[in-house]
Amino acid sequence: MKKEFRKKVINLRKKQQPDFIKKNSDIIKNKLLQMDCIKNSNTIMLYLDFNNEVITDDLIKELISMGKIVASPITIIKEKVLIPSQITDFENGIKYGAYNIREPKSDCSPEINIKNIDVVIVPAVAYDINGFRLGYGGGFYDRFLENIREDAVTIGIAFDLQIFDEVPKEPHDAQLDYIITESRILKPNKSV
Fold first, then answer.
1. Residues 24-47: pLDDT tens digits?
2. Rounded CA gap, 172 and 189, in Å?
3. Are 142 and 170 in contact (CB under 8 A)?
4. How far apart are the first and last CA of the chain?
């Protein structure tokens, strides 16, 4: 069920035109930059987009210009882990890594202690209105989120077409604090 659902949403997102992706990514970026948790944070981890995800390049550059420490994950496939690594040079310090996803170059991107991260902006194929995400199937972010500080804020960013009443989930799937789209900010009540 997860596999079919994931494929359906990825195909829907792939069909979107570049102007739709850019325009709505800018709206989402501006909403994020207005959030107190972003303004008050020191260290933010977020993904480098691919495959018609919400574009993060301008957001990363703006966060760096605000004096934030910005990290993106380096994926270690064999160990199924994400290593948060500081982006120190956006123009020359990024390469294509695992799964052909952009990531910081390890030689110019110091590793960030996971406990120093204040906000994690999480990618997904889809989200539900309760803050659960359907990832790409590797479990990398689920494992990563289990180890962040309890007070770290988790935010999913997506287009409205990626939001559903419910997504297939399992007991270990993380519930996020916020979901931001071009038209709304969802702040689900956390499950107990």
1. 999 999 999 999 999 999 999 999
2. 17
3. no
4. 26
Q: Torsions phi, psi of 169, nearest 5?
A: -145, 165
CA 182 remoteness from chain centre: 15
Tokens of 2: 């997860």
* Of 108, 74, 78, 75, nearest in space to 91 by CA: 108
Provide the pairing of β-strand 43-46 with 119-122.
parallel
Residue 142: closest CA among 87, 82, 84: 82
pLDDT in tens, 96-136: 988 888 999 988 899 999 999 999 999 999 999 999 999 88
What are the pLDDT digits (tens) for 59-83?
Answer: 999 999 999 999 999 999 999 899 9
The token pair that represents 126 in the structure block: 């889809």
Q: What domains can you pick out in the chain, each with its CATH number?
A: 2-186 (3.40.50.10420)
Query: Is the backbone of residue 139 left (phi > 0), alpha (psi -120 to 50) or beta?
Result: left
